Write the structure tokens for this entry.
Amino acid sequence: MCVDHDKLSDNYDVIIIGSGLGGLTTANRLAYCGHRVLLLEFHHQLGGLATWFKRRGHIFDISLHGFPYGMVKTCKKYWNREIMQSIVQLKNIVFDNPQFSLRTTFTREDFTSILRNYFKIPQTTLDRFFTTVAGMNFYDDQSMTTRELFDQFFPGRTDVHRLLMEPITYANGSTLDDPAITYGIVFSNFMNKGVYTFEGGTDKLIRMMTDELTKSGVTICTNAKVDRIIVEDKKVRGIVTRGKTISARAVVSNSGITNTIYDLVGREGFSDDFLEKADAIRVNNSSCQVYFGIKKDSVIKDAGDLLFTSASPRFDSEELLDLHTRSKTFSIYYPKTRPGHDRHTIVASMNSRFDDWSLMDEATYKEQKKRLIDRTLIDLERYFPGVREKIDWMEAATPKTFKRYTLHTLGTSFGTKFEGLDVSRSLYKEIAGLFHVGSVGIIMSGWLGAINYGVIVANDADGFLRSATAQ
Ligand SMILES: Cc1cc2nc3c(=O)[nH]c(=O)nc-3n(C[C@H](O)[C@H](O)[C@H](O)COP(=O)(O)OP(=O)(O)OC[C@H]3O[C@@H](n4cnc5c(N)ncnc54)[C@H](O)[C@@H]3O)c2cc1C
């Protein structure tokens, strides 16, 4: 499946740097269009943040907590029917915080009923709100913030703001101060038909995608960090990996947009105007996670699939990012989630700032990781009394872990804020044949966003490769 470094050719039509869901999709589409594609991945495993690891018989998923129904159509159209068929709904989403405790299927119908009956919001207000967010599109006015949107429809209702915002903050790191359209687009995606997962786990998905890439004829090489993108006369010429130069008419970088500009090309490759825009890019926050493996023959009750929990009195984006946040989501993976694998695992996720962890000395870092696990265990016991006795593996990941495995600037989990999209989309105007795919601008992040962006960028690169400029 993966080719040895010394067996790589000196020349391909197009090189993809990175195998996140965006990179994998672009690679597959371009090979499908008949181009000779080389996919280079820094890690030994494909998938980028769509990843997993194994410990003592447990398999832990990192970013498989939920995605919108749109994945069904996208996977069927751009990957294959088998991948589509493993997508199943998570029907039991739980919210538990000092302002409210409730369960929902996270569909528009159920959410409307909760907002009307539990939160006593008039139906006319709800209709107007849902119509407004559903009608938002990328080219709309970007000056209104999500906070202003909420204040317009639900003034003073911090409980409603929390219900509407908390899952989206976990889903893409956005805050009440981000443009309302980023909220509207993501919220309507989720609200459409609920939250979905991939039955069989991330490892199964990536295995199926790898098979598809092999069938399409993509050359795959892992443990292959790209150190430099070669640019001459404002045209991309190839890359350097492990000391070897490989030429190509086009390069698609799935490395972070900031990594691509500053580390792989270098500032000298760009105009001042472009750099001004690039320098203004804000990367999104990173994450912490705690992984719990339940002993082989132990069982835990069904307490829901996804638990949005918080002990904080009010929703507050800053509190969610704090080192000692009292807000987290628990993803519970029952054996049914991985048919044939008879284990329960639990993953707690928290938003987090890179600098809070990166500036610690080694001893403090270790101690803080231990405290993070202890705090999370206490929270977990509220939902699964006595669970401590059933756990045989506990481990934590921090923003440093995410940076180490993906190289992303500040270990970002969801790429960049809104302004990153424009920079990503205009890269090829600066350097002919150079494209970027990957989490930018909130709406292109997440599993669905990354795959969809992969398709868009494959179309751009295919058009370029067929054009005179590329010859
Ligand atoms: C903790 C966490 C939870 C998440 N939960 C969800 C969720 O529930 N639902 C959801 O939809 N999304 C979730 N996401 C987000 C989602 O996983 C990502 O948005 C998506 O997978 C990103 O895909 P990408 O194409 O941008 O590439 P990435 O996954 O960022 O991958 C980029 C790849 O490029 C490689 N690379 C970088 N530089 C180089 C180089 N120089 N040479 C070679 N290779 C290089 C990296 O090693 C990596 O493999 C979560 C993310 C995190 C961190």
